[in-house]
Design goal:
8 helices, Rossmann fold, 6-stranded parallel beta sheet, 218 residues, 6 strands
Protein backbone atom coordinates (compact mmCIF):
# COMPACT_ATOMS: atom_id res chain seq x y z
CA UNK A 1 0.00 0.00 0.00
CA UNK A 2 1.19 3.50 -0.81
CA UNK A 3 0.34 6.51 1.32
CA UNK A 4 -0.06 9.92 -0.24
CA UNK A 5 1.46 12.99 1.35
CA UNK A 6 -2.04 14.35 1.87
CA UNK A 7 -3.05 11.23 3.81
CA UNK A 8 0.07 11.30 5.97
CA UNK A 9 -0.40 14.98 6.82
CA UNK A 10 -4.08 14.44 7.59
CA UNK A 11 -3.58 11.56 10.03
CA UNK A 12 -0.76 13.43 11.77
CA UNK A 13 -2.88 16.56 12.09
CA UNK A 14 -5.79 14.57 13.49
CA UNK A 15 -3.54 12.91 16.06
CA UNK A 16 -2.18 16.26 17.22
CA UNK A 17 -5.65 17.78 17.50
CA UNK A 18 -7.85 14.89 18.59
CA UNK A 19 -5.60 12.04 19.71
CA UNK A 20 -6.67 10.26 22.87
CA UNK A 21 -4.45 7.66 24.47
CA UNK A 22 -6.51 4.69 25.64
CA UNK A 23 -6.05 3.70 29.27
CA UNK A 24 -8.33 3.31 32.25
CA UNK A 25 -8.12 5.96 34.96
CA UNK A 26 -8.17 4.28 38.36
CA UNK A 27 -8.24 6.86 41.19
CA UNK A 28 -6.45 4.52 43.60
CA UNK A 29 -3.52 4.32 41.20
CA UNK A 30 -3.22 8.09 40.69
CA UNK A 31 -0.99 10.78 42.18
CA UNK A 32 -1.30 14.50 41.50
CA UNK A 33 1.91 16.37 40.67
CA UNK A 34 1.76 20.13 41.27
CA UNK A 35 4.71 21.41 39.30
CA UNK A 36 6.59 24.52 40.45
CA UNK A 37 3.68 26.62 41.70
CA UNK A 38 6.15 28.57 43.82
CA UNK A 39 6.45 32.25 44.60
CA UNK A 40 9.01 32.92 41.87
CA UNK A 41 6.50 31.90 39.19
CA UNK A 42 3.20 32.79 40.85
CA UNK A 43 3.70 35.89 43.02
CA UNK A 44 2.66 38.86 40.86
CA UNK A 45 5.44 41.20 39.69
CA UNK A 46 8.01 39.69 42.09
CA UNK A 47 10.53 38.16 39.68
CA UNK A 48 11.34 38.20 35.98
CA UNK A 49 10.18 34.56 35.96
CA UNK A 50 6.60 35.46 36.91
CA UNK A 51 4.01 33.57 34.83
CA UNK A 52 0.81 35.67 34.91
CA UNK A 53 -1.32 32.78 33.66
CA UNK A 54 -0.08 30.61 36.53
CA UNK A 55 -1.39 33.22 38.96
CA UNK A 56 -4.75 33.25 37.21
CA UNK A 57 -4.97 29.45 37.39
CA UNK A 58 -4.36 29.18 41.14
CA UNK A 59 -8.07 28.82 41.91
CA UNK A 60 -8.44 25.97 39.40
CA UNK A 61 -5.34 24.19 40.66
CA UNK A 62 -6.55 24.60 44.24
CA UNK A 63 -9.83 23.01 43.25
CA UNK A 64 -7.99 20.05 41.74
CA UNK A 65 -5.76 19.72 44.82
CA UNK A 66 -8.75 19.82 47.19
CA UNK A 67 -10.62 17.30 45.06
CA UNK A 68 -7.68 14.88 45.06
CA UNK A 69 -7.24 15.24 48.81
CA UNK A 70 -10.90 14.36 49.22
CA UNK A 71 -10.37 11.24 47.11
CA UNK A 72 -7.20 10.21 49.03
CA UNK A 73 -5.15 10.78 45.88
CA UNK A 74 -1.66 11.81 47.03
CA UNK A 75 -0.60 15.36 46.16
CA UNK A 76 3.11 15.84 45.49
CA UNK A 77 4.58 19.31 44.96
CA UNK A 78 7.79 20.25 43.18
CA UNK A 79 9.88 23.42 43.30
CA UNK A 80 13.26 24.80 42.36
CA UNK A 81 15.52 25.50 45.31
CA UNK A 82 19.18 25.99 46.23
CA UNK A 83 20.15 22.31 46.34
CA UNK A 84 23.69 20.95 46.59
CA UNK A 85 25.23 24.39 46.07
CA UNK A 86 23.78 24.32 42.55
CA UNK A 87 26.27 21.57 41.62
CA UNK A 88 23.46 19.22 40.59
CA UNK A 89 22.32 21.29 37.58
CA UNK A 90 22.81 20.45 33.91
CA UNK A 91 26.11 22.10 32.99
CA UNK A 92 24.72 24.17 30.13
CA UNK A 93 21.72 25.47 32.08
CA UNK A 94 23.30 28.83 32.86
CA UNK A 95 23.99 29.37 29.17
CA UNK A 96 20.34 29.22 28.15
CA UNK A 97 18.63 32.49 27.15
CA UNK A 98 15.95 32.19 29.81
CA UNK A 99 17.53 34.13 32.68
CA UNK A 100 16.57 37.66 31.52
CA UNK A 101 19.54 39.49 33.08
CA UNK A 102 18.34 42.67 31.41
CA UNK A 103 15.45 42.70 33.90
CA UNK A 104 17.80 42.53 36.88
CA UNK A 105 18.61 39.71 39.26
CA UNK A 106 17.87 39.03 42.89
CA UNK A 107 20.12 36.45 44.59
CA UNK A 108 17.25 35.42 46.86
CA UNK A 109 15.21 34.02 43.98
CA UNK A 110 14.94 30.25 43.74
CA UNK A 111 16.54 29.73 47.15
CA UNK A 112 13.63 28.86 49.42
CA UNK A 113 11.36 27.00 47.01
CA UNK A 114 8.22 28.24 48.77
CA UNK A 115 4.94 27.00 47.33
CA UNK A 116 2.39 29.76 46.73
CA UNK A 117 0.43 30.42 49.92
CA UNK A 118 -3.04 29.65 48.53
CA UNK A 119 -2.04 26.07 47.73
CA UNK A 120 0.44 25.35 50.51
CA UNK A 121 1.27 21.65 51.01
CA UNK A 122 -0.22 19.89 54.01
CA UNK A 123 2.03 18.55 56.75
CA UNK A 124 1.76 15.03 55.36
CA UNK A 125 2.39 16.04 51.73
CA UNK A 126 5.70 15.73 49.93
CA UNK A 127 7.63 18.59 48.35
CA UNK A 128 10.36 17.51 45.93
CA UNK A 129 13.10 20.03 45.19
CA UNK A 130 14.41 19.43 41.70
CA UNK A 131 17.53 20.67 39.92
CA UNK A 132 16.16 20.85 36.38
CA UNK A 133 12.95 20.91 34.35
CA UNK A 134 11.66 17.36 34.78
CA UNK A 135 10.45 16.17 38.18
CA UNK A 136 12.03 12.73 37.65
CA UNK A 137 15.54 14.02 36.92
CA UNK A 138 17.86 13.37 39.89
CA UNK A 139 14.97 13.24 42.39
CA UNK A 140 13.32 10.45 44.42
CA UNK A 141 9.97 10.88 42.64
CA UNK A 142 9.98 7.50 40.90
CA UNK A 143 10.85 5.66 44.10
CA UNK A 144 8.14 7.54 45.98
CA UNK A 145 5.49 6.71 43.37
CA UNK A 146 6.48 3.04 43.31
CA UNK A 147 6.38 2.83 47.10
CA UNK A 148 2.89 4.36 47.00
CA UNK A 149 1.78 1.85 44.38
CA UNK A 150 0.88 4.54 41.83
CA UNK A 151 1.10 4.04 38.08
CA UNK A 152 -0.72 7.18 36.89
CA UNK A 153 0.39 10.80 37.29
CA UNK A 154 -1.83 13.85 36.87
CA UNK A 155 0.15 16.95 35.97
CA UNK A 156 -0.74 20.56 36.71
CA UNK A 157 1.37 23.67 37.29
CA UNK A 158 3.90 25.64 35.27
CA UNK A 159 5.47 25.88 32.71
CA UNK A 160 3.50 23.76 30.28
CA UNK A 161 6.28 23.48 27.72
CA UNK A 162 9.19 23.15 30.13
CA UNK A 163 8.83 21.59 33.58
CA UNK A 164 5.32 20.16 33.10
CA UNK A 165 5.94 18.87 29.59
CA UNK A 166 9.34 17.45 30.47
CA UNK A 167 7.85 15.67 33.49
CA UNK A 168 5.14 14.20 31.26
CA UNK A 169 7.75 12.88 28.86
CA UNK A 170 9.89 11.46 31.65
CA UNK A 171 6.86 9.79 33.20
CA UNK A 172 5.86 8.27 29.87
CA UNK A 173 9.37 6.90 29.35
CA UNK A 174 9.24 5.27 32.79
CA UNK A 175 6.00 3.48 32.04
CA UNK A 176 3.57 5.77 33.85
CA UNK A 177 0.16 6.67 32.52
CA UNK A 178 0.16 10.44 32.19
CA UNK A 179 -2.84 12.77 32.50
CA UNK A 180 -2.01 16.35 31.54
CA UNK A 181 -4.26 19.22 32.56
CA UNK A 182 -4.87 21.51 29.58
CA UNK A 183 -6.28 24.41 31.62
CA UNK A 184 -4.32 23.89 34.85
CA UNK A 185 -0.93 24.34 33.19
CA UNK A 186 0.48 27.60 31.89
CA UNK A 187 3.26 29.12 29.81
CA UNK A 188 5.13 32.42 29.65
CA UNK A 189 3.89 32.82 26.08
CA UNK A 190 0.23 31.92 25.42
CA UNK A 191 1.07 31.02 21.83
CA UNK A 192 3.18 28.10 23.12
CA UNK A 193 0.37 26.41 25.10
CA UNK A 194 -1.51 24.63 22.35
CA UNK A 195 1.55 23.48 20.36
CA UNK A 196 2.88 21.74 23.47
CA UNK A 197 -0.50 20.19 24.20
CA UNK A 198 -0.61 18.88 20.64
CA UNK A 199 2.73 17.11 20.98
CA UNK A 200 1.80 15.63 24.35
CA UNK A 201 -1.61 14.56 23.04
CA UNK A 202 -0.10 12.68 20.11
CA UNK A 203 2.74 10.91 21.86
CA UNK A 204 2.91 11.17 25.64
CA UNK A 205 -0.27 11.86 27.61
CA UNK A 206 -4.03 11.95 27.91
CA UNK A 207 -4.73 15.70 27.67
CA UNK A 208 -7.85 16.78 29.55
CA UNK A 209 -9.29 19.93 31.05
CA UNK A 210 -10.05 20.26 34.77
CA UNK A 211 -13.71 19.33 34.50
CA UNK A 212 -12.94 16.20 32.50
CA UNK A 213 -10.22 15.14 34.97
CA UNK A 214 -12.62 15.48 37.88
CA UNK A 215 -15.38 13.67 35.97
CA UNK A 216 -13.08 10.72 35.25
CA UNK A 217 -11.77 10.55 38.82
CA UNK A 218 -15.35 10.44 40.06
Amino acid sequence: MKYSEETILKVADDAYKYGDVKFDIIPGKCALLVIDMQDEFVKPEWTSSWIPEATRQVHKIKRLIDFCRGKDIPVIFTAFKDTNLFRDRPLTGALMPNRFPELGNDPEWFREGKIWQEISPGQDEIVIYKPSYGAFYDTPLETILKNMGKDTIIICGTLTNYCCGTTARQGYERGYKVIFGSDVTSTDDPDMQEPELKVLRKGFAKVMDLEKIIENLN
